[in-house]
Design a protein that fits this description.
Elements lengths: L5 H6 L6 H8 L8 H17 L20 H10 L1 H13 L3 H23 L6 H16 L6 H12 L13 H9 L3 H7 L3 H16 L4 H13 L5 H24 L6 H17 L4 H22 L11
The structure holds ligand LTSJ6FE6 and adenine (ADE).
Adenine binds next to helix 3 and helix 15.
Length: about 325
């Protein structure tokens, strides 16, 4: 594929069926545009990296188990990805044929990765996030009348299961090698199963923790710990193998059992887990991406409530 530049991300969608674009634009009462969806994705990515203290991960305190990442680099990367997410949302609003949509967002996702590397000087900040949130923002745009987390994740899962004729047969990435070595589903499996760690794990824990009166920070940390407690995170497997993954999962479960981030004992366990991950030099980047996905879907529920559909059945496209 020829090299593309940001403006091309938009023009790739220029040949989309005009009727569909108009029909979606008529839904202005929603106030939910492609730009608004992409802004919500970027906000979720910034919320994720800013959340502190996260075990092993980049946060406001520092670089976690990374030498080349920082909070400001992650924010630069998230902001640079806004046009890519907006182009994916435009594609979701406009392309009726699901196979064509899958291939279009595949190209936009690969182009988004290239933009990420341009913005970060070649450092991998958000590859997994482009994948997960790219699918979710597209799926959200596909049906603005059904923006519940479960509906959006289900549409994203269906897209992830479709073939993309232009995807390289092999990525050569560490996650791919870890999937083969350890026989786990990784980022692809998570998406194809419609994001179970977001829908059945993170969002219920976020709601439970908020209801229990935890602060928003503690509720988000607990949602992250809940993901870590059972995810086969290929970032952890690639750097530290099965033993490191067991340490992470056990430590996250133990922290939640001790009351989670909202309790003094839980906070002590969280600190101990952070120290263990730093000693092992492992970083649960996959869990961080899925927390960002949960925070995006949580924001979407807010957008939906702010702008309820006024003419839900008047569309006939
Ligand atoms: C399908 C793709 C995701 C490609 O996947 P692939 O198999 O090639 O593997 P990776 O790219 O290595 O892994 C995918 C990233 O997904 C995150 N992740 C890991 N485990 C899971 C999981 N169980 N569930 C969900 N997500 C998971 C993770 O991303 C985060 O970590 C990255 C930092 O990783 P790290 O290893 O620390 O850093 P590196 O620099 O790579 O190594 P070090 O030297 O420092 O150790 C960071 O990016 C986080 O986001 C995994 O890295 C997908 O990319 C693809 O096919 N794309 C094509 C385009 C497309 O079709 N798009 C569709 C619409 S967007
Ligand atoms: N906060 C974070 N730290 C390290 N890797 C990440 N990948 C996505 N978010 C991350």
């Amino acid at each position: 594929m020829p090299k593309l530049y940001p403006a091309d991300l938009f023009s790739m969608c220029a040949d989309l069926p005009a009727k569909r674009v108009c029909a979606r634009d008529l839904r202005a009462p929603h106030g939910v545009s492609a730009a608004r969806l992409a802004e919500s994705v970027v906000a979720a990515l910034i919320d994720e990296v800013t959340l502190s203290p996260k075990p092993g991960l980049v946060d406001l305190r520092g670089s976690g188990a990374h030498r080349d990442l920082s909070w400001s680099l992650m924010c630069t990367s998230a902001t640079a990805l806004q046009p890519a997410f907006e182009a994916m949302a435009r594609a979701g609003l406009s392309i009726l044929d699901d196979r064509r949509l899958r291939e279009t967002i595949g190209a936009l996702g690969r182009e988004g990765e290239a933009r990420m590397f341009d913005a970060t000087g070649g450092i991998n900040t958000h590859r997994g996030a482009i994948w997960a949130l790219g699918l979710l923002v597209t799926a959200a745009a596909q049906d603005l009348d059904r923006l519940s987390a479960a509906d959006v994740a289900s549409r994203a899962g269906a897209l992830a299961r479709l073939p993309d004729r232009h995807a390289p047969a092999t990525t050569g990435n560490k996650g791919e090698a870890a999937r083969r070595t350890y026989q786990v589903g990784g980022a692809c499996g998570q998406a194809q199963a419609a994001f179970p760690h977001v829908i059945d794990v993170a969002l219920p824990e976020l709601a439970r923790s908020r209801c229990a009166g935890d602060t928003e920070t503690a509720a988000r940390l607990n949602a992250l710990l809940a993901i870590m407690a059972s995810l086969d995170d290929t970032c952890v497997l690639a750097r530290g193998g099965r033993d490191a993954l067991r340490t992470l999962q056990h430590g996250a479960r133990d922290t939640l059992e001790r009351g989670g981030a909202g309790s003094p004992e839980g906070r002590r366990a969280l600190k101990a887990l952070d120290r263990r991950l730093l000693d092992l030099h492992v970083s649960p980047g996959g869990a961080a991406d899925l927390l960002a996905a949960a925070l995006f879907l949580d924001r979407l529920a807010g957008l939906d409530a702010e702008h309820p559909a006024e003419h839900p059945s008047s569309e006939n496209d």
